């Protein structure tokens, strides 16, 4: 092994870099999870995460990756044979559908082109045709991490209401939460799924289900066979600040610290910062003469930007060159767009110079990999950042 100087640029759309303050908070000694001292931590963790989901309802914390929380969401409110409507925004929507099918759920896709978020009008049309109300849930990915597009969840709620459809609204905001505005209560979401390692600036390891009163009621008498994922076992003892089994104590230390930092910066400031960095990135991409994968205006993600490679050039080869020469990790294209796109993560604990550093690595690596492009994308991004007030700093 040879030592590489300087810091690694972790510019994948999750895990995102963990702030030093959070790492330090996590380095505290582990404590007895049945002790009175733990209840303070438990209460703090369980109440503070609600402020990020913008909910007064229960948020359940699982020691699991986001995939576990997906399974928890499905298994608590749906039974084998139930019909659900899902929207093909990209790779993660496809994986969630495959999971539903493995669990015996009949999942129907509204087919998408991976270039935008969910289309609420199409969802409304499909629900209108479901006169027998067979569809038990509508499942949508908020921020599709494989493509860099955001689905308008408030519009999806309106689609359900417009046809007075009783289906539960279930949302994967694993990579959206904490980076893109999400309003569980206001948008009438029934179950939201999230994870620690994206907008929340934590390491991977814990994940969440926010649960509406209605979804919780459904789970009490319905859902499929489940044990580890059962919400019922959690909510009772969570009310006392504890968990039914050993929680990820040090992740909770980190989470409480990360949420404190988020409120110090201000949630709206964080969302605006992400939008501004995403806009600067898109300007750079277009100046390079490359194409942004998300082509639906207004759906562009603040979390990441997926970039289409010119025909005949390998995105994976380009990423390998970027890593080798500039010590930067960029996201790969997943499944349908494997080797065709690369993804620039601009989420979490970053600032203008982090972004410019990352974009500089991309621009130089395009040359190293022999990818045809125009020079000067970074200069265009710099100009945009100079000209656009930085939320929380200039305004
Ligand atoms: C990361 C991600 C997942 C998967 O989460 P894991 O923590 O890797 O299990 C699911 N959906 C979306 C939108 C994601 O970004």
Give a description of the structure.
It is globular, with a radius of gyration of 21 Å. The longest helix is centred in the last third of the chain and has 21 residues, at 267-287. The chain has 2 domains: 9-15 and 267-387, Aspartate Aminotransferase, domain 1, CATH 3.90.1150.10; 20-263, Aspartate Aminotransferase, domain 2 (3-Layer(aba) Sandwich). The protein is α/β, with parallel strands linked by helices and 395 residues long. Strands 2-10-9-8-5-3-4 form a 7-stranded mixed β-sheet, sandwiched between helices. The protein has a 5-stranded mixed β-sheet with strand order 1-13-14-12-11, sandwiched between helices. A hairpin with a 4-residue loop joins strand 6 and strand 7. It has 13 helices and 14 strands. The structure holds pyridoxal-5'-phosphate (PLP).
- Total beta strands: 14
Tally of separate helices = 13
Kindly report how far apart the N and C termini lie.
46 Å
Number of domains: 2
Structure class: alpha/beta
């Amino acid at each position: 092994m040879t030592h590489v100087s300087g810091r690694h640029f972790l510019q994948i759309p999750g895990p995102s870099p963990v702030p030093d303050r959070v790492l330090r908070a996590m380095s505290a000694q582990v404590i007895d999870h049945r002790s009175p001292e733990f209840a303070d931590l438990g209460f703090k963790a369980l109440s503070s995460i609600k402020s990020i989901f913008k909910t007064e309802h229960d948020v359940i914390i699982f020691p699991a990756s986001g995939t576990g929380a997906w399974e928890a969401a499905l298994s608590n409110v749906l039974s084998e044979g139930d019909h659900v409507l899902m929207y093909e925004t990209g790779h993660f929507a496809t994986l969630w559908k495959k999971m539903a099918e493995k669990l015996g759920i009949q999942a129907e896709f509204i087919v998408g082109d991976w270039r935008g978020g969910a289309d609420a009008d199409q969802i409304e049309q499909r629900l209108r045709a479901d006169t027998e109300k067979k569809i038990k849930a509508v499942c949508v990915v908020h921020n599709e991490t494989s493509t860099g597009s955001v689905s308008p969840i408030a519009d999806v709620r309106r689609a359900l209401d417009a046809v007075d459809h009783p289906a539960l609204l279930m949302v994967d905001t694993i990579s959206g939460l904490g980076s893109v505005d999400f309003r569980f209560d206001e948008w009438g979401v029934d179950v939201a799924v999230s994870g620690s390692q994206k907008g929340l600036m934590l390491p991977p390891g814990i994940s969440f289900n926010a649960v509406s009163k209605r979804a919780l009621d459904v789970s009490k008498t319905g859902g499929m066979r489940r044990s580890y994922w059962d919400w019922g076992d959690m909510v009772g003892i969570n009310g006392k600040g504890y968990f039914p089994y050993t929680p990820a104590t040090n992740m909770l230390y980190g989470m409480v610290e990360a949420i404190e930092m988020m409120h110090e910066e201000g949630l709206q400031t964080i969302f605006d910062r992400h939008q501004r960095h995403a806009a600067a990135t898109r300007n750079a991409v277009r100046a390079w003469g490359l194409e942004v994968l998300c082509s639906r205006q207004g759906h562009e993600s603040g979390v990441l930007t997926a970039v289409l490679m010119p025909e005949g050039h390998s995105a994976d080869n380009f990423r390998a060159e970027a890593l080798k020469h500039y010590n930067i990790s960029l996201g790969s294209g997943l499944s349908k767009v494997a080797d065709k796109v690369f993804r620039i993560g601009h989420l979490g604990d970053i600032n203008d110079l982090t972004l410019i550093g990352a974009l500089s690595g991309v621009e130089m690596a395009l040359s190293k990999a022999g990818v045809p492009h125009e020079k000067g994308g970074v200069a265009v991004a710099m100009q945009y950042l100079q000209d656009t007030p930085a939320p929380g700093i200039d305004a």
